[in-house]
Amino acid sequence: MTSTAHRPAEALALNGTHAPAQTDVADFRVITANIQSFPEGALTDDQALEDLRENAEAADIVLLQEIAARYRPLVAQAFPAAEWEVFYGADDNSEPVAFRKDLFTVLDKKAIVLHPPVAKVHFRRHITHLHLRHDASGAVFHVTNLHLVAGAFSHPPHANRELRVREWNTGMAKHLNQVFSFAAAGEPVIGGGDYNRRLGIHPAMGSEIDDRPVKYAVDQKSIDLLWCVDGDTLRWSLLERQVFQGRDGKRPQRHSDHAARLAHVQLGRGEADEAIPFLTVARIPQQADGSEAVRRPRKAAKKPTKKTVKAKKPVGTAPLREHWPPPFEKTTFGDTNKKVVDWKTRAALEEAERRLGYTLTIYQGSYNTTVKASAKTHWGGGVVDLAPYDHENKVRVLRELGFAAWYRPRSRSWDPHIHAVMIDHGKLHPQAADQVVQYRNGTDGLVGHAKDPTPRPSPIPVFHYPPAERLEPLTPQPEGRPAAGRHRAGEARPAAPARRTPTGAAFPPRRTLDGVDTSHHQPGRLDLRRAQAAGLRFWYVKTTDGETTVDPTYKKRVREARKAGVPVGAYHFARPDGGDAQKEAVHFLRSSDIRLGDMVPMLDLEGHVVLQRDQLTRWVGVWVSTVRQALAAKGLSATPIIYTSMDLDDAFGCKLWVARYSNDFREPRIPAPWRRAAIWQHSDGRVGPILDVPGFGHVDVNALHPDLPLNALRVKRVHSTGNGVDDLRRELLVARQHIDAVLERLPERKQR
Fold first, then answer.
1. Are residues 352 and 208 both part of a single domain?
2. Does 263 lie in the same domain as 368?
3. 491 in a structural domain
4. What is the spatial distance between Cα 267 and Cα 420, in angstroms, rounded to a whole number?
5. Closest to 598 in 3D by CA, of 180, 114, 127
6. Greatest CA span in the chain, whole angstroms?
7. 349 found inside a domain
8. E strand intervals along 507-582
9. How far apart are CA 472 and CA 488, in angstroms?
């Protein structure tokens, strides 16, 4: 198995030496492969050497994992130094990258600590990075390789599962931030490794980085990934992919337990023309701790007998309707043997399918007076029993939609199932209504009134009928302008665009822990790893107040965030009544360290303001334009986000951040001219659904609108204008940030 056919021919240079002929595209093969190291006797040296040699024959860039110290001599044999460079970057790095010297030139290389060592869990692991130039084409791109912590999402779970999940999430955040910095700098990236989480269950890299799609070259059952992200001008195409089975495969062609995965790629200018399309990521529900749900295997579908086959409804996609029937009119529902329910119950179950990503099997419906074991709870409407598989996710989703739902394990009276009662339903039997009272009181809905250990939403929601129609993804619209119309029944669905702005509710519909914001009022020691494990995705830190004040916690907090890989943003508390907008903006800029990949700056516009609306609008416009222009001069593109409840005449292209704290679901007001909020600050540590953030304590808690990707709120690189001076300034900016990052890590190295 060789890959020499695609290598470029050589041309005779003027000085008599051979130089590669210039080509339009970079054309090469990349493979990711594990060499099983544990237990030590699982793979003989001869078998490991055979695997390594096959990898070297198959590809031009090889991403290796699990290269223990005893395998290094074998790597040297399989990748001879005359033809290959194998970059480790650290003495204990077991994730090296090998590349052919005759095809590539190294521009930069480094190994970054991904996971510090944890006793009885893993040794120290690294992200191995190469900045390469393809000599034949001149194309420049980044390569990354890693091996994330194992066992975080295995079934049955490990005893130290919580630690492993936290390690995995922290490592993934660090990895994504690194890839974001490369993509934001405008250069293409290709990478892979052992992510130890199946792509079909969890979108490990996600669907986009810096608003650029992530293109996958692996099947959706793999935990070993190969992926690409386009640059500004150079884009990836996939010509071919292959899988070389390991010893656990159906055709054990290799000795390692993992299958090796190879992608034959091209990197060229213009639109990517993919002969074989990259795979998309399928989202499958997860349990509350972030682990994937176990799904029931489906039976093979019968072959159609008629020539005309009706198109199937996508799994978990509820139809959009012009008119809904009366709520208590009876209908049927379920994936196979449909059961009787009413339309209000059916609408809620359709929404549950959409959130879960699969169809529901109903064991028992409503208005059923024949089953004695149900204690008459099914005699009225609004009650169903569902199949028990994936019960943790099902119960969570049903409770979020407004059901009193419990998982019922096997007993003498029934087989395992999920029992669900709609809380706000006008046709409940009295026995079912009593179960709703028990649910509100925190008990299990049975005769013994035992305590219910399953978490419930707070406040407890109810389902409203008819439901609001879900909006299809729309073409991005500037804030404050009317959005496109809804998708109507019978019409063709519009294609989803590559980028989206918030299109659904005016504010984030779920009050989750996405981000926090802090100031000198939270001076104590913080534990970012605990917060990340709880779901933290971003952190805003107060920088300045008015024209002269600097928050004393800013510099320390920013260092902590960057060290942990948490996107961090700076915010300024405005004093528009007596302050000069331009002076406050300049003070903010001088006191802030805003870098590529950070969260966009935030203007905190609150408190008592006596300015008229038009005066306040002009004040905000000066501040926003001053900050935006100053960052652009440094090669950075960032439109600030505005935290306010005050009406303005112009949004200046800024997104909105609103606050409203309540223990029930009180909606925040959307000030003019905005129509929706990008972020909702729903808790202040004293009032709201989340009062105590792990690792932070009582702080402001914020939810990001689910239709808005986090990358839409991150500082990006100004796209090239063709001006050589501007391009040089941007290159110097990227180099400076790289040096700053190295200097920040020096104290860590001294301690080790």
1. no
2. no
3. no
4. 53
5. 180
6. 95
7. yes
8. 515-518, 538-545, 549-550, 568-573
9. 10
* Token duo for residue 403: 């059901």
Range of the domain at 638: 515-719
Q: Which phi and psi angles does 443 have, rounded to 5°?
A: -110, 180
Cα–Cα distance, 463 to 378 (Å, whole number): 19
Contact in structure between 314 and 496 (CB atoms under 8 Å): no
Helix (H) or strand (E) holding 143: strand 140-147
Give the angle subtended at the CA of 13 by the CAs of 9 and 18, to the nearest 5°. Answer: 50
End residue of a domain, out of 253, 269, 285: 269
Nearest to 112 by CA among 87, 143, 90: 90
Give residue 656's identity as a one-letter amino acid code: L
Enumerate long-range contacts of 559-563, CB under 8 Å, 24 or more apart: 559/744, 560/526, 560/528, 561/528, 562/741, 562/744, 563/744
Question: What's the CA gap between 683 and 146, in Å, rounded?
Answer: 37
pLDDT surpassing 70 at residue 648: yes
Please identify, among 440, 464, 492, the residue that sits at the C-terminal boundary of a domain.
440
> Tokens 């049903």 belong to which residue?
398
Q: Which of 380, 387, 374 is nearest to 342 (CA)?
A: 380
CA proximity to 215, closest of 165, 271, 259, 260: 271
Least confident of 227-241, 376-390, 501-515, 517-531: 501-515
Q: How crowded is residue 249: how many other Cβ atoms within 10 Å of its Cβ? A: 14
Give, in order, the Cα–Cα distances in Å from 170 to each of 151, 167, 197, 503, 685. Answer: 15, 5, 14, 30, 24
Q: Supply the pLDDT for residue 293.
A: 41
Q: Which amino acid is at 53?
A: R
| CATH number where 435 lies | 3.30.1380
Query: What HEC string does 668-734 produce?
Result: CCCCCCCCCCCEEEEECCCCCCCCCECCCECCEEEEECCCCCHHHHECEECCCCCCHHHHHHHHHHH
With bands split at pLDDT 50, 70 and 90, how would you rate the model's confidence at 167?
A: confident
Euclidean distance between CA atoms 550 and 548, whole angstroms: 7
Residue 190 neighbours by CB distance under 10 Å: 23
Mean pLDDT for 398-422 is 90
Which pLDDT score is estimated for 197? 84
Torsion angles phi and psi, residue 36, rounded to 5: -55, 130
**pTM to 2 decimal places:** 0.53
More reliable by pLDDT, 316 or 423: 423
